[in-house]
Specification:
Length: 219
């Protein structure tokens, strides 16, 4: 019986490895949609805010010891532009790193975080301004550092787990009133396949959590 079970598991993992190798070997491009609240008027809190800067502080490694550390497929281009758009690394059924996933050319990790925070600020009643010439002495100024924005896969015998982790430092200040907020969320769910659509689903889930966290923390 043990021999039959071992044979079955060997075939199962071999089949999984072949499947995931086929779908994970190449770089993929995806587009994320920042979650928005239902179309309803949010009462103004009387405050105005301007997002001054968004800086990507993520560190990429060539052969990371853990899958939650950003890395890129060494057979693909490694430019700063690609790193600014990189959001995930695909893996085969054994957990070996394969191709990666980047945002399409219309998006970067910076732009996704900026749009997510705009949604959070607006949801809390802030007037979000887009140009510096609108700034007044009463305007709150936000500077953001992105420490983590990454998705990865953990293999399993009968299902895989896709994860997405986002962590940022958000510094909000007005004259004489500086405040720092650390925002950290992680989404995880089980899937049968590591398709790009499933990666999108888990990233959208994490963004939804991130917006909720920002709304709770930054009043």
């Amino acid at each position: 019986m043990n021999h039959v079970l071992r044979t079955f598991l060997t075939l199962l993992f071999a089949t999984s490895a072949l499947f995931f190798s086929g779908c994970a070997a190449k770089r993929g491009e995806v587009a994320l949609q920042v979650p928005t609240a239902k179309a309803e008027t949010t009462p103004s809190n009387g405050k105005q805010i301007y997002i001054n800067s968004v800086v990507d502080k993520r560190v990429f490694e060539v052969k990371p010891s853990e899958p939650n550390i950003p890395s890129l497929d060494p057979s693909e281009p490694q430019s700063d532009d690609i790193k600014a758009r990189a959001v995930a690394r695909k893996r085969n059924g054994y957990g070996m790193a394969m191709g990666d996933i980047v945002l399409n050319t219309n998006q970067t990790v910076n732009s996704v975080i900026k749009d997510s925070l705009k949604e959070a600020f607006s949801g809390n009643g802030y007037q979000v301004i887009d140009t510096k010439d609108q700034i007044t002495p009463q305007t709150y100024i936000a500077d953001i550092q992105i420490l983590k924005f990454w998705s990865w896969m953990n293999p399993g015998a009968f299902a895989i787990t896709l994860n997405c982790e986002i962590e940022t430092n958000v510094n909000v200040k007005k004259e004489g009133d500086p405040k720092s907020h650390s925002l950290h969320v992680k989404a995880a769910d089980s899937f049968q396949m590591g398709t790009e659509s499933n990666y999108i689903e888990i990233m959208q889930k994490a963004l939804q959590q991130y917006i909720a966290e920002a709304k709770a923390e930054i009043k």
